[in-house]
Please model this.
Amino acid sequence: MSLNSFNFILFLAAVYVLYTVFQRFGIKGRRVLLLTAGLAFYWMCSKGFAALLIAETVWNYYSAQVLDNKKSGGILAFALALNIGVLFFFKYLGFFTGIETNIAVPAGISFFTLAVSGYLIDIYKGKSKAEKNFIDFSLFMVFFPALTSGPIERGDHLIPQLKEADIRKTADAGSFKVGLFRICRGFFLKLCVADNIKVLVDTVYSSPDKFAGVPVIIAVLAYSMQIYCDFAGYSDIAIGSARLFGIRLLENFDAPYLSRSIKDIWRRWHMSLSFWFRDYLYFPLGGSRKGTLRAYLNIIAVFAVSGLWHGADWKFIFWGVLNGMYQVIESIIEKGTGTGKNGKSGTWRIVLNYILMSLAWIFFRADSMGEAFRIISSIFGTGSQGILSAGAGAPALIITAVFVLAAAAYDIRNRKQDVSDTICKTDAIWFVCAALIILVLVFGAYGPGYDSADFIYNRF
Model:
């Protein structure tokens, strides 16, 4: 079950109604309700692997208690080794051994492994205390809005909010409005923008030898917007779902493509992941404290690991290294030309960064390194089949272009003022949500071959 499926809407509505009834009548057990909902959700997503999630929850709970009593590096290393070892077995065993394993990957394992590993590291460093209540810790592990694709939460941010679930006496109307708006916006970004762009992108990437020149350029540039709207849409649905219960998840996106530097893009793209790698890998490697050259090597190493985290394939590692190189080269140029923090840069930097990011995304989207290089070579080719003749109709392209411009305009405006906050404080929220729902129902990318579980980041 994916967050953009009709089944999830029914599931969320049922849990919310029960939660609200518990609130209205002051019934205890709301945390148990959310915990049960999380386990049920994961069972529907990953069926047999629910037992694995329960086992990891029990293991990490007791590991945290031991670490809290004795700050032992050996205990931490053993606990992390087990967590990462399970992830390695399911996701990377075939890649590193060269053996065809055909092992199914449990839903969300990359996300909850990082979340609980960060939790253990924080306890070891004394930044937070181990949660004594097993239910509260378990709910941190299985809170269903963030379980399968993040945001990657921090224990000291999420657990205190979860502990208050039985304390809140009445439903928060403001949280409900914000939650509803974020959910509607998420469905719009996913079904109206990302999935309509997907038709165009897949047309080119599925037959790279048939296209060259302008059609390939359009597809390459379009994929950058597709993956942004896909994952930003997912994050909106997750964050909005949590807000219905009064829980604030970490934000994941802050209009990254409006950044005027590659470095700033990665501060505002998948922020919960970027900050995790910064805090738990880049800083421990020395960050920028051990000289410029070491800092550059650390950046490339972190991005290479980030690429590997996304998938067990050389194309993801290359994608990560390429993005790391972008930052290194950008830093060298800024130091040489004085266009760093105190320098000036115009809109052309935004355009250039989008092009550079789009070129890197080719390796992320292509089925293999070889196909990625074929796509790149096709950019400079001529005499290809037109996208329209290949099945991407003109009306659909025009509608999609309008939606993309609307999403871009929202991000531009939101950078100056919190549009969602303004909307949610007025009665206009009901009209806006109704309009978004109508757009999703009318223009959402449904039909034969549509896979409601196909959020791009569900694969990682």
Summary: DSSP finds 20 helices and no strands in the chain. The longest helix spans residues 173-205.
